[in-house]
Specification:
The protein has 11 helices and 15 strands. By secondary structure, it is of the alpha/beta class. Strands 1-9-5-2-3-4-15 form a 7-stranded mixed beta sheet. A 5-stranded mixed beta sheet has the order 12-11-10-13-14, with helices on both faces. Helix 4 crosses helix 11. It is globular, with a radius of gyration of 21 Å. The two termini are 13 Å apart.
């Protein structure tokens, strides 16, 4: 599902412009399977993470252009991702219709839900199928039979979309499509698995929690908590500078000095407890909206801070279901000698890999 898209190609560049750094992956279609061509990344220091890279398009474009050159990428057709926090997404039930009538019905509902004028938004939707139950209240005029269609509606501000277009153009790339991070993560980490799954993407500044049912992001939530929050907590506890705390966080050996016998470090407990509460909230919301639906069967953890010691174990205890570190390379063909390095960078590359998988998976 994309907010805009063009013709398919043999290979794509997945370009993930994140607060903690930029990631690039090129995958090609090898008889229906994704094959790794090249990859690259550029990190941003903790002092830079709070600033939106899209607010400095020239600098960001130069860094993307440098990644393309360093990686010797062949393709210039790029797919990028809109952040969960910047996109409106909702499941709607509208009177069964087709063509212009369906479009009109969706826009009526969108006007009620989106706090921005629709003229300033780019909307896209995916029909999920007919549903037997309808929203509360009598069937509206024009729908006497009470037939309903369930739709996944996605919307993004035109100004935000234009920023991505501008960066791609400055970097010498053709932006084929803009997708949501949620769909990219589902493509790389969930694939065709139809089990009800929760994805927890712990990014540099924000954490995205996505509840996936039958391959569709039924609910999503973005919270102001990420790797930078962990870095600040470690720095405050040890009296270390932001850069020193970031280095300690990256050094598992150094971090082990403040690890208790079990659980996460005490300095991180309040942050992890907050994350756990948000996960429970999303599960409860899902249960209230989908009575009788399958409960969450597993939690897939990704993002740079997913590599912190015992984070996955902690999140497993939150919902009492299996939690594991997601592997975005599981559906990708690559040279076996690259496996050690790909394992290390995998959590940071889940979005980029999912973007580059467009039209392959």
């Amino acid at each position: 599902m994309a907010l805009f898209g063009k013709q398919s190609a043999k290979s794509y560049l997945g370009v993930d412009i994140g607060s903690g750094g930029f990631k690039l992956v090129e995958l090609q279609n090898d008889k229906g399977r994704a094959k790794l061509v090249t990859y690259a990344f550029t990190e941003r220091g903790p002092e830079e993470m709070a600033a939106n890279p899209l607010d400095t398009p020239e600098v960001t474009a130069d860094l993307v252009k440098s990644m393309v050159a360093r990686s010797k990428a062949r393709s210039r057709r790029a797919v990028s991702a809109l952040p969960v926090a910047g996109v409106f997404s909702s499941i709607l039930s509208v009177p069964a219709a087709a063509g212009k009538e369906l479009k009109a019905a969706i826009e009526i509902q969108a006007k009620k839900l989106i706090p921005i004028p629709l003229e300033e938004m780019i909307l896209d939707w995916k029909v999920l199928g007919e549903v037997s139950s309808a929203p509360k209240g009598p069937a509206p005029a024009g729908n006497p039979a009470g037939k309903w269609t369930q739709v996944l509606l996605t919307g993004a501000p035109k100004k935000l979309v234009q920023k991505y277009i501008d960066v791609a153009k400055r970097a010498g790339l053709e932006l084929i499509s803009l997708e949501t991070e949620a769909f990219a993560l589902i493509r790389s980490l969930v694939g065709r698995d139809r089990a009800t799954t929760m994805i927890v993407d712990i990014g540099a500044v924000r954490t995205n929690i996505i509840l996936v049912e039958n391959g569709i992001p039924y609910l999503s939530r973005s919270i102001d908590l990420g790797g930078l929050s962990f870095t600040k907590a470690i720095g405050n506890a040890l009296g270390a500078s932001l850069s020193a705390a970031e280095q300690m966080k990256a050094d598992v050996g150094a971090l082990s000095a403040i690890l208790p016998e079990r659980g996460v470090p005490k300095v991180l407990e309040p942050l992890m407890a907050n994350l756990g509460n948000e996960m429970r909230y999303l599960v409860n919301l899902f249960s209230s909206q989908r009575p009788g639906a399958a409960s969450v069967e597993k939690v897939v953890v990704t993002g740079g801070s997913a590599l912190l010691p015992r984070v996955t174990d902690y999140l497993q205890e939150v919902l009492g279901v299996k939690a594991y570190l997601g592997d975005p390379w599981a559906r990708v063909i690559y040279p076996t000698e690259l496996r050690p390095q790909l394992e290390i960078i995998g959590p940071r590359f889940a979005v980029a890999v999912g973007l580059a998988m467009r039209d392959i998976e």
